[in-house]
Amino acid sequence: MIRIVCADIASADACIYRGLYKKASDQRKSRADRYLRPEDKLRCVTAAALLKNVLGADDDQIAKNDFGKPYLKDRRDVYYNLSHSGHYVVLAWGDTELGIDVQKHEACANMEAIGMRFFALDELQYARGDIGRFYEIWTKKESFLKYTGKGLHTDLRAFSVLAPESDIRYFYRTLGTDYSLSLCTEEHEFETTLLDVQQLL
Question: Whole-model pTM above 0.85?
Answer without folding.
Answer: yes
